[in-house]
């Protein structure tokens, strides 16, 4: 897809800086689809984004709750971890669309919820462990094409 690129993330500071840059470009309706193996840094990146948007409290992993809501942020944000879903329809059964209304969705394991790549406002980020830290492979949807230069 045109506009795809990689970002090297050699350490936690680089991951946090990347999250801050992403947070600065977010708009209501955006989806950040975070994929990668266990321990690749999906939750770490999500936490960096949430903190960069101004959340000062704990940022728990939504692994067990599946969905964590941050209504106090601008824009409001939903952080979801779909790892435990057995079928994509379960995301709908959880009321995901209601949670998403007017906000941003950070989706870990997006393929377990049926994926979001078809959405113009989706920024897909695949995190990989590499020798010197992590690498983010970024695939912007149509709505992100004008914003990715800032990432």
Provide a compact summary of the structure.
The protein has helices at 12-23, 42-52, 89-93, 96-100; strands at 5-9, 31-35, 67-70, 77-81, 104-108, 122-130, 133-140. The chain is an alpha/beta fold and 151 residues long. α1 (12-23) packs across α2 (42-52).
Could you please describe the fold and organization of this structure?
The chain is of the alpha/beta class and 151 residues long. The chain has a single domain (5-145), classed as 3-Layer(aba) Sandwich (Rossmann fold). It contains 4 helices and 7 strands. The chain has helices at 12-23, 42-52, 89-93, 96-100; strands at residues 5-9, 31-35, 67-70, 77-81, 104-108, 122-130, 133-140. It has a 7-stranded mixed beta sheet. Strand 6 and strand 7 form a beta hairpin. The protein starts with a strand and ends in an 11-residue tail after the last strand.
What key attributes describe this structure?
151 residues, alpha/beta, Rossmann fold, 7-stranded mixed β-sheet, 4 helices, 7 strands, 22% helix
How does the major sheet shape up? 7 strands, mixed
Going by CATH, the architecture would be: 3-Layer(aba) Sandwich
Distance between the termini: 17 Å
User: Can you tell me the CATH superfamily?
Assistant: P-loop containing nucleotide triphosphate hydrolases
Please, how many domains?
1
Q: Spell the H/E element sequence.
A: EHEHEEHHEEE
Low-confidence stretches: none
Please bin the fraction of helical residues: 10-25%
Say what the CATH topology is.
Rossmann fold
How big a fraction of the residues is strand?
A: 25-35%
